[in-house]
Amino acid sequence: MTFQFYIVPTPIGNLSDITYRAIDILKKVDCIACEDTRVTRILAEKYNIGAKLTDCHKFNEKERSNKIINLLKEGKTVALVSDAGTPCISDPGCYLIEALIENNIKYTALPGACAVTTFLSQIPRNTEEFAFIGFIPKTKNRQKLLLDKYKYINTVFYESPNRLLNTLNNIKEFYGENIKIAVGRELTKIFEEIKIDDISHIIDYYENNTLKGEIAVMLFALNSNDVSEEFLNDKIEALKEEGFSPKDISKIISKLYNMNKNQVYKKLID
């Protein structure tokens, strides 16, 4: 093996969604660091993976990092997995990666399953720009502060089934009953479900249907009519600093925020 340490994505639901390379790496390494050994053992048994499993989760990552670094210094090879999806994307691993860099240990990441991209690939959007904020805060005030920061960009977050309705009702209070939202549930599993509608209709639906499984949500960007003068000026100045011409800036702004290109251009030359 070229590398000593591998960041390996695992399926987010359907156990068949794992790459040949991921299975090959997991079979060859000396140790697999995982969030929950019970969860990873199910995958290991399915694909006859015999590597030693050691737990490495958000509550013990610092302690386990030292142990893993010592193993690597002994010449051992290690793979990092999470319970589902790609490590370090709303999952443990970032502290460990810092430790690898500090100790000059060579590592690589494999491509693979990730709930964010699986979800977004099923959502029609008029721009590639989006903000991913991980698990949304639990408190209403913190939700408002964070969502306001990205309200003119499509914003993706994770939420638990027992808190989803409360969060959706908060968003409805923040931005009105007609704001558009998408909800993805049980992605890649038998009962996968994607709902795209005004938030009031989404709330009505889930008030009358059982909520289970992991959930991804996208809050569609607010309409251009709600774009503040301050926000628009900030975007224009940022594009100017990057060297874009007024003509190019007017095209970019009009495309991103569904604004009249001539009006934006007039504002620029004024």
Which CATH class of the largest domain?
Alpha Beta
- The percent range for helix content is 40-55%
SSE-based structural type: alpha/beta
The gyration radius over C-alpha positions equals 22 Å
**Regions with pLDDT < 50 over 5+ consecutive residues?**
none
**Looking at this structure, what is the CATH superfamily of the largest domain?**
Tetrapyrrole methylase, N-terminal domain
Sheet-strand content, in percent, reads 15-25%
Number of helices: 11
Shape: globular
Mean pLDDT: 91
Distance from first to last alpha carbon: 61 Å
Main sheet strand line-up: 3-2-4-1-5
For the largest beta-sheet, the strand count, sense and barrel status come to:
5 strands, parallel
User: Any idea what the CATH architecture of the largest domain is?
Assistant: 3-Layer(aba) Sandwich
Describe the fold and architecture:
There is one protein chain. The chain is α/β, with parallel strands linked by helices and 270 residues long. It has 3 domains: 5-113, 3-Layer(aba) Sandwich (Cobalt-precorrin-4 Transmethylase, domain 1); 116-222, Tetrapyrrole methylase, C-terminal domain (Methyltransferase, Cobalt-precorrin-4 Transmethylase, Domain 2); 225-269. It is built from 11 helices and 10 strands. The chain has helices at residues 20-28, 37-46, 61-73, 94-102, 115-120, 140-149, 164-175, 199-207, 229-241, 246-257, 261-269, and strands at residues 5-7, 31-34, 52-55, 78-80, 107-109, 130-135, 154-159, 180-185, 193-198, 215-219. The longest helix has 13 residues, at 61-73. The protein is globular, with a radius of gyration of 22 Å.
